[in-house]
Automatic annotation (TrEMBL):
Its EC number is 1.14.17.4. GO terms for molecular function: 1-aminocyclopropane-1-carboxylate oxidase activity; L-ascorbic acid binding; metal ion binding. Residues 155-255 form the Fe2OG dioxygenase domain. Belongs to the iron/ascorbate-dependent oxidoreductase family. SUPFAM superfamilies: Clavaminate synthase-like. It holds the Pfam family 2OG-FeII_Oxy. InterPro entries: DIOX_N, IPNS-like_FE2OG_OXY, IPNS-like_sf, Oxoglu/Fe-dep_dioxygenase_dom, Plant_2OG-oxidoreductases. GO terms for biological process: ethylene biosynthetic process; fruit ripening. Keywords: Ethylene biosynthesis, Fruit ripening, Iron, Metal-binding, Oxidoreductase, Vitamin C. Its cofactor is Fe cation. It comes from Dendrobium catenatum. This is 1-aminocyclopropane-1-carboxylate oxidase. PROSITE patterns: FE2OG_OXY (PS51471). Gene3D superfamilies: B-lactam Antibiotic, Isopenicillin N Synthase, Chain.
Length: 307
């Protein structure tokens, strides 16, 4: 059993129906899948790898050595407590790219390359949302319309650039703790040599295998709500490693903070089924998520709700 790998180019031919079914099954059974032949230029992906790795070396590596995670791990090792682990910290260097925040200056090609990449990923995200809508029996554009607060706001699109440097004691600290993602649809361009990403299915952890030039798709909490639980956001984590500096570039297509999220109305006008989730404002959910990211998502859903 393995995380599905789906050839997106097959949507264009006689295998369209089978490919749509593959995507639907992956969303229902895994909440994760990998895309090949996704139409993002491979030379662009090569440039993204290059500028992100160079950016870490030039602007981030030295700072990580003084980070809280490094300090806490060093303290733990020095303490001599053989069985203790760090359960509330991540062995991760991270920064966020948005249209309106400050981006790294180095290398010189970073801004131009990542701007181009984000445009391509946003197009792919909206294409995938249309596919999810078709599989769920929703009208075309339903999810984007919901995420935009019925056109009043822009959906949020952010890119998280992470590195997981070599860890001297990966048995004592994780790369990124178990969690589901708060938002809508996540598109990950992960390292094709250094693994570590795992997804939980039926109580067992499975590796999301590093495959060159693939885009990993995973379902966020808001798609779970809109689908009324048909598609599930899956718990996932990143293991720390003693070898290699794992690169991870995750782009998030999320609702605007003002958007109201609830189980969807189908094209015919009726509810999919009895609503199993509350109706809430996404910004309220994010306030809860900021405090409960590493707790059960069911608790988060129970904490929000409007009439």
């Amino acid at each position: 059993m393995a995380v599905p790998v789906i050839d997106l180019s097959k949507l264009q031919g006689s295998e369209r129906a089978a490919t749509m079914a593959e995507i639907g099954s992956a969303c229902e059974e895994w909440g994760f899948f990998q895309l090949v032949n996704h139409d993002i230029p491979l030379d662009l992906l090569d440039r993204v790898k290059k500028v992100c790795s160079e950016c870490y070396k030039m602007e981030r590596e030295e700072g990580f050595k003084d980070s809280k995670a490094v300090q806490l791990l060093n303290d733990l090792i020095d303490s001599g407590e053989a069985c203790k682990t760090l359960d509330d910290v991540d062995w991760e260097d991270v920064f966020i790219l948005q249209d309106d925040n400050q981006w790294p200056s180095n290398p010189l090609q970073f801004k131009e390359t990542m701007k181009e990449y984000r445009l391509e990923l946003k197009k792919l995200a909206e294409k995938m949302l249309n596919i999810l809508e078709d599989n769920l029996g929703l009208s075309q554009g339903y999810i984007k319309q919901t995420f935009s607060g019925n056109g009043s706001h822009n959906p949020f699109f952010g890119t998280k650039v992470s590195h997981y440097p070599p860890c001297p004691r990966p048995d004592r600290v994780g790369g990124l703790r178990n969690h589901t993602d708060a938002g809508g649809l996540i598109l990950l361009f992960q390292d094709d040599k250094v693994g570590g990403l795992q997804v939980l299915k039926n109580g067992q952890w499975f590796d999301v295998q590093p495959l060159a030039n693939t885009i990993v798709i995973n379902i966020g909490d808001q798609i779970e709500v809109i689908s009324n639980g048909r598609y599930k956001s899956a718990l996932h984590r990143v293991l720390a490693s003693a070898n290699g500096n794992r690169r991870s570039i995750a782009s998030f297509y999320n609702p605007a903070l003002e958007a109201v999220i609830e189980p969807a109305v189908m094209s015919g006008g009726g509810k999919i089924e009895k609503a199993g989730y509350p109706r809430f404002v996404f910004g309220d959910y994010m306030e809860v998520y900021a405090k409960q990211k590493f707790m059960d998502k069911e608790q988060r859903f129970q904490s929000v709700g409007i009439n």
